[in-house]
Amino acid sequence: MELFKVADLDEALNIVLDNNKISLGYEEIDILNSLDRVLYEDIVSPLNVPDFRRSTVDGYAVRFKDTIGASESIPAMLNLKGEVVMGKAADRDIKEGECVYVPTGGMLPYGSDAVVMIEYTEKLDDETILINSPVPFLENVVEIGEDVKKDEIILKKGSIIRPFEIGVMSSLGIKKVKVYKKAVIGIISTGNEVLDINENLTLGKIYDINSYLLMSLVKKDMAEAKSYGIVKDEYDLLKGILNKALDECDIVLISGGSSVGKKDETFKVLNSFDDLGVLIHGIAIKPGKPTLIARCKGKIVFGLPGHPLACSVIYISLVKKYIQSLVSFFEKEIPLSCTFGLNYHKAKGREEYLPVNLIDEYGELKAYPVFTKSGLITGFSKAEGYIVIPKNEEGLRENQRVYVYRL
Ligand SMILES: Nc1nc2c(c(=O)[nH]1)N[C@H]1C(S)=C(S)[C@@H](COP(=O)(O)OP(=O)(O)OC[C@H]3O[C@@H](n4cnc5c(N)ncnc54)[C@H](O)[C@@H]3O)O[C@H]1N2
Ligand code: MOO
């Protein structure tokens, strides 16, 4: 009996992207509120940073050629022509054989092209400075535009704004920035056995895990989570709530009710809207196979497996990538390279997401699996990361090189 038409993960993501109809648009916000948001457009620099040759030390601005061959026994002798005041433009040029005192961060006078640190100089009198060491061209200087060049694309659309990017924007005098609006993700838990955390637990029931899990994952991914609570396994109830969520959100996640159990109404509800309905039922991934993907009212709906580990894996491997694609953000994941601690067998045919812990064994980092089940929430909470074992592999050998993604 073939239960699902199973798609590979890449295929599933492509189908989602091909059938996406929404665009989030942007909002313009103060740079200080833009931390962890995603840039909506390239930022082109309106100016050079710095806009003048700037000293990185306290010392004397010179023409580097005047210091060639200088030493303690035969110093170069330069005429002191005043000093540059911090925060003010240097008001005179220097010529051959001249120098001017500059503080760290001060502007170099025109004509100078290097700075000699004060430690390598001696003041002979009020008008004469002895230079004890030569300086190469642009030594101790930040050149005009060395940090940022005028008209350069300094920050790219789709990048995440970190404290460093906020610093770059402030260096350019940019006060407000356009960022993608946050995607609003609706979350619905289903199941007659699932109770809200505020209800009394009775035998046969369980507390809702997936709403809390998904809301937290969504928040971590810079999107906005909107919970629609727990819905009993009844067609009309689920249809009503989903309809409301589709009107209010950009994406909807429904947990539970995606496999073939007789009470599983999700499939029927997803096909009941005047749109494409179910696009995929089943992904070749372990855990997480009975995943549903549909388009309803122009929005993508993910029917995530009820088992919490499977639900997390589908979120991380698929939902998260779709959310990121809406803000043009393509995360470069940098897994940790190490060796595997034992022989591990898996069945061919599904890509497996295996939770692991890292142990330092005599200076060598080894990954060991966390033996768990898809129905257990602690699978990932007991793990530091996970390994992705390709679909057609039969497992991992002891000492084999593996790549661990951090959770
Ligand atoms: N005959 C088959 N049975 C099952 C198959 C299958 O291929 N053939 N697949 C199994 C796999 S794998 C998974 S994963 C689950 C997926 O089930 P559903 O997505 O239909 O979800 P439910 O049946 O509603 O629940 C499964 C499991 O998860 C618990 N659950 C559900 N919602 C929550 C929640 N919000 N918080 C915590 N736990 C939740 C639920 O109580 C069930 O124990 O199907 C297998 N069965
Ligand atoms: O897909 Mo299920 O996720 O193996 O429990």
From TrEMBL:
Transmembrane portions of the chain: none
PROSITE patterns in the record: MOCF_BIOSYNTHESIS_2
Any one of the GO CC terms: cytosol
Magnesium in keyword set: yes
Catalytic activity: adenylyl-molybdopterin + molybdate = Mo-molybdopterin + AMP + H(+)
Cofactors required: Mg(2+)
Keyword Transferase on entry: yes
Enzyme class at the top of the EC tree: transferase
GO biological process: Mo-molybdopterin cofactor biosynthetic process
Signal peptide interval: none
A matching Pfam family: MoeA_C
Any one GO molecular function term: metal ion binding
Residue span, MoaB/Mog domain: 186-325
Pathway(s) per entry: Cofactor biosynthesis; molybdopterin biosynthesis
Keywords on record: Magnesium, Metal-binding, Molybdenum, Molybdenum cofactor biosynthesis, Transferase
EC number(s) given by UniProt: 2.10.1.1
Recorded family membership: Belongs to the MoeA family.
Function per UniProt: Catalyzes the insertion of molybdate into adenylated molybdopterin with the concomitant release of AMP. May be involved in the biosynthesis of molybdopterin.
Record-given protein name: Molybdopterin molybdenumtransferase
